[in-house]
Amino acid sequence: MGNGPSLQPFLRISRVDTTAVRVPLQEPLKWTGGIRESASGLIVELHTDEGPVGVGEAPGPTLPAIQTIIDRELGQFLVGQDPLRIEWLVHRMEEYSRNWAGVAAYAIAGLEMALWDLKGKILGASVAELLGGYCREEVPVIGYLFIDEPEAAAQKAADFVEAGHTELKLKVGRSLSQDFDTLAAIRDRVGFDVKIRIDANMNWSVPAAIKWIRALERFDLQYVEQPVPDFDLEGMAQVRRAVSVPIAADEACTSVRSALALIKADACDVFVVYPSEAGGLTRAAQIASLAAAAGKWCAIGSWAELGVATTANAHLVASSSCFAFASDTHYPLQLEDVLTDAVAIEDGAITVGHDPGFGVTLDRESMASLAALELRESPFYDDIHGDAPSVGQIL
Questions:
Q1: Which residues make Cβ contacts (< 8 Å) with residue 272, sequence separation at least 6?
Q2: Exposure pattern of 241-274 as b/e (b: 16+ CB <10 Å)?
Q3: Which residues, listed in sequence order, are joined to residue 230 by a DSSP beta bridge?
Q4: Whole-number Å distance between alpha carbons of 221 and 177
Q5: Roughly how many angstroms between the first and final C-alpha of the chain, as a whole number?
Q6: N or C: which end of the chain has fewer CB within 10 A?
Q7: CB distance 74 to 94 below 8 Å
Q8: What is the DSSP string of 204-263?
Q9: Where are the domains of the chain?
């Protein structure tokens, strides 16, 4: 007995190219862990021996390491292979990188994204169609607010609402009084019909989280993201039981296995899913399926994706019934992109088209310019030589 019919691909991957780019922001973005001064991403291109090129993006916290992993470690698993065998190729890369899976997931995500785009181009179908078909074509995205003076944050919130956004996200966690005043100013400006979620990025201890959330509950919060450190699932469950606001797992939800652990601990109500951290769109969809089975909902998280990954995330949401909340995105805060046509956000939503693959085209001039741009990439620390932020503080 054989092992089934032999696979004879009509296309093979001939080359893997990566380009690291840095995109300027409208202004520095302040959160509990530091100040982000740029949006950075690794553009991945999978060339084939007969023409079609798959385009992906690996956003993440450490682009030099991610680029090295693709160029020196994972590319060898793709060259010469049939690009349609996505699950098999992802499995091989995951097994190879098992001992360093955390950082490898970002690299695999960029490659897997390019594989989906390439498969869509080969088969003449959009990625949303390949992932299961359209549940929707309009994918809502949030208006993203960072730590700022209350009136400045309120004005930005009003601008987002004027542009059609119905959900906002506010970074919090450095000062309770400032957070209180900021939410009061936002609610005074936009009213209570707009949904607002807040994100502390692991900055609180369990007692601090309970105190902080109870103080802010009056502002009708949609949910609170990652109030305590990612490793403290028991503590997150304790916070969840002590407050009336739903709790979302962000830094604690990075993989299929972490999603299972969150379900077992009954630690949260919402999964914030990052395809980049999960290792691609396939694993992100599996996390969403686990959430649905456990009676929980999902939202897309953001590493400040550029246009390629922003579009890819929208295709995932369009193909799923599990993403009940607007997706995170920094895209409106970024001044440039690598695409010939910027991702259109109209009335607070991205329309997912039906062109083959993701339907995006790279702008070579923009890529070259952004690749040469000297900007700080790290989103951590306000001042690299100053005091370091910490998580789980008693505040």
A1: 225, 226, 248, 249, 250, 253, 298, 299, 300, 301, 328
A2: eebebbbbbbbbbbbbebbeebbebebbbbbbbb
A3: none
A4: 17
A5: 67
A6: N
A7: no
A8: B-HHHHHHHHHHHGGG-EEEEE--S-TT-HHHHHHHHHH-SS-EEESTT--SHHHHHHHH
A9: 13-124, 129-362
Q: Check residues 95 and 387 and name the one with the higher pLDDT.
A: 95
- Give pTM, 2 decimals: 0.94
- Residue 204, both tokens: 């609180």
Output the six-digit token pair for 20. 């690291």
State the pLDDT at residue 389: 72
Domain 13-124 has CATH 3.30.390.10: yes
Element (H, E) at 152: helix 150-162
Angle subtended by helix axes 281-293 and 101-123, to nearest 10: 100
Q: Which of 76, 61, 55, 71 is nearest to 106 (CA)?
A: 61
SS3 assignment, position 81: coil
Say if CB 82 and CB 7 are below 8 A apart. yes
The HSE-up count of residue 301 (CA atoms within 13 Å, CB side) is 29
Query: At 60, is the pLDDT very low, low, confident or very high (cuts 50, 70, 90)?
Result: confident
**Which CATH number describes the domain made up of 129-362?**
3.20.20.120
Question: Would you say residue 4 has pLDDT above 80?
Answer: no
